[in-house]
Amino acid sequence: MKVSEVREKYLEFMKSKGHTIVSGASLVPENDPTTLFTSSGMQPLVPYLLGREHPAGVRIANSQRSFRAQDIEEVGDNRHTTYFEMLGNWSFGDADATAGAGYFKKEQLSWFYEFVTEIIEIDKERLSVTCFEGDEKFGLPRDNESFEIWKSLGVPEERIFFYGGKKNWWSRGGPPENTPVGDPAGPDSEVFYDFGIEPGLHEQSEWKNETCHPNCGCGRFMEIGNSVFMEYKRESSDNFVKLPRRNVDFGGGLERITAGSIKNPDIFMIDIFEPFRKLLEQTSGKKYGEGLYTRSFRIVMDHVRAAHALIEDGVRPSNTEQGYVLRRLIRRAIVHADKLGIPQGQLFENEVANEEEMRFRETLKRGMREIERGETDVFKLATSYGLPVEVLKEIMDVDDKRLHEQIEEHREKSRAGSEGKFKGGLADTSDMSVKYHTATHLLQQALRTVLGKHVVQKGSNITPERLRFDFSHTQKMTDEEKKQVEELVNEQIRLALPVTYQDLPLDEAQKMGAIGLFEEKYNDKVRVFKIGDFSLEFCGGPHVGNTRELANNPDASKVGVKMRFRILKEEAVSSGIRRIKAVLE
User: Fold this and answer.
1) Are 542 and 429 in contact (CB under 8 A)?
2) pLDDT digits (tens, 9 = 90+) for 340-353
3) Residue 159 to residue 219: CA distance in whole angstroms
4) Are 328 and 495 in contact (CB under 8 A)?
5) Long-range pairs of 211-215 with CB within 8 A, sequence gap ≥ 24
6) Residue 8: which H helix or E strand, with range?
7) DSSP per residue, 213-261
8) Is the Cβ–Cβ distance between 396 and 378 less than 8 Å?
9) Are 303 and 330 in contact (CB under 8 A)?
10) Using CA atoms, how far apart are residues 294 and 340, in angstroms rounded to an integer?
11) Which of 102, 317, 366, 478 has the fewest CB atoms within 10 Å distance of its CB?
12) Which residue intervals of 313-399 are DSSP H helices?
């Protein structure tokens, strides 16, 4: 079957069961600061799962375009994609609470089983299911009801498996212990398509000496649908209560169900990938599925498809939030296109993506030249030649432990250097002063992003309690501008960007676009600090090794409580000079 056929049959089937078909949401959520992307059909529907009435009624269904950034590293196997469609249906309020309008476990499980076995005609013998085994800590019972329903539908007991909260409990935070207080949650029951022993997926995997089961990582089993039974709300850190209205939240992978319908364990062999797959084969001169290039084919197919979808929904490459993820997709696709031997300019049919490709290829060209000359030091390649670590991991083996040691060594050298003639306005070199000094780099770039490139540093004063930063700007900042600056700084902290440096000739540093105190007289050789792709600045003071350290709370009584950057005050110092006082709190 084709993807379009499966989608159409699903929506028709759910309509026959009394559902109203509604439109999907944008990939970029509106009014939801908790997440960057729409990653499932239920995400825009949380208010209705908590009790608000949906204008379309208590039974709705749709097909939702979705994106999951956390799956980027998983792409390359037979079943993971970052961009996909999720078939979904919902019941807001079960039959007991809504006079027969809603439904719960019996209807949901039997309907999905009917859909995949009778409408899509997937072999019943190829299906296995999973249920929630319960959680004693939170007093959450084993889901014996779903077990009995599956048995009544004809699924044999040996193909019904029980798993704990990490696999068969749904909440936005994951297992019961991570469910956000106030959020709806509940046990789920998943359906897997078993591709059998014929492809040899398990026998060729790293799990070959272990017993295969639905949640094995070998790829033999592919999850095609998940029915979540939202009957709880987390009331406190150690307690769940029953929701006044039980809900059903079903999500089924459109691409995965299609793969099951054609009995092919490789999701990239379904019809929607075929034109692009053939184009890549033609331009690369390589055959998909043969040799060592299959992983690169899959990464390129997924990432290019996902990048186009994000661009269509208004995302543009940048160093923050959605734009940072898009940039990462494009860069990773380019690296694997090069592995396939695909010529430059043949990957994207999109002006935005093509411009990003040209910029990245300049960086990649410089870095690859050094690699070809024999350079293997990942730290040097990242700091001196601008190759992102995630890209280097696609090119060579990266020793994460050694890289961490090098970053720490860099931090110590940076700290020691600050005890010389230049301290960067620091009162001392304590941990908090070093954090605040790094934060001034983030602050300056955030100000230039929000207010304009006319912003330059005019001075700073840093203590373990706060930072003070003077900068060129003629007008008082609005509350919205201050908020944007705060959010931009905190985003760089959340992204855990590496902080690196290199010593360069002054003219070379200036050509790179590094900024500094322009009244300062610099030596012929200068030190330039780089924070991810966000900030590039002359400096001789001490810095943290990664922006994530700015979030670490030094108060031993508040372990796990993260710190955020906040502007306390913005005021005039003199004509054309403003001052910001800010803290990490």
Assistant:
1) yes
2) 998 887 888 788 88
3) 17
4) no
5) 213/161, 214/128, 214/129, 214/130, 214/161, 214/190, 215/130, 215/161, 215/163, 215/167
6) helix 3-16
7) -TT-TTSSEEEEEEEEEEEEEEEETTEEEEEEEEEEEEEEEHHHHHHHH
8) yes
9) yes
10) 9
11) 478
12) 321-340, 351-372, 378-385, 389-395
Task: Give just the sign of the alpha carbon dihedral 219, 225, 227, 233.
Answer: positive
Give the tens place of pLDDT for each residue, 414-423: 445 444 433 4
- Chain-centre distance for alpha carbon 511: 33
Q: What angle do CA 259, 261, 264 make, to 5 degrees?
A: 45
- Cα separation, 357 vs 333, whole angstroms: 10
Token pair for 168:
């068969």
pLDDT band of 555, cuts 50, 70, 90: low
Pairing of β 499-505 and β 20-21 = unpaired
Tokens matching residue 130: 């999973």
Instruction: Please give the Cα distance from 182 to 161 (Å, whole number).
Output: 30
Report which residue type is found at 553: N
Could you tell me if 504 and 526 are in contact, meaning their C-beta atoms sit under 8 angstroms apart? yes
- Phi, psi torsion values for 413, nearest 5 degrees: -65, -40
Closest CA to 225 of 278, 272, 170: 170
CB atoms within 10 A of CB 23: 7
What's the angle, vertex CA 87, arms to CA 146 and CA 97, rounded to 5?
A: 50
Give the separation between CA 304 and CA 299, rounded to whole angstroms.
Answer: 8
Q: How far apart are CA 83 and CA 306, in angstroms?
A: 5
Nearest residue to 24 via CA among 65, 59, 56, 53: 65
Q: How far apart are CA 375 and CA 369, in angstroms?
A: 9
- pLDDT value of residue 187: 96
The Cα 417–Cα 498 span in angstroms is: 19
Question: What tokens were used for 196?
Answer: 């059998």
Tens-place pLDDT, residues 213-252 = 999 888 889 899 999 999 998 888 788 999 888 889 999 9
In the block, which residue shows the tokens 């400096």? 539
**Whole-model pTM?**
0.66
Residue 59 — φ and ψ, nearest 5°? -125, 115
Burial code (b: 16+ CB inside 10 Å, e: under 16) for 306-319 equals bbbbbbebebebbb
How far CA 80 is from CA of 26, 129, 243, 449, in Å, comes to: 21, 20, 33, 36
Q: What is the reported pLDDT for 425?
A: 60
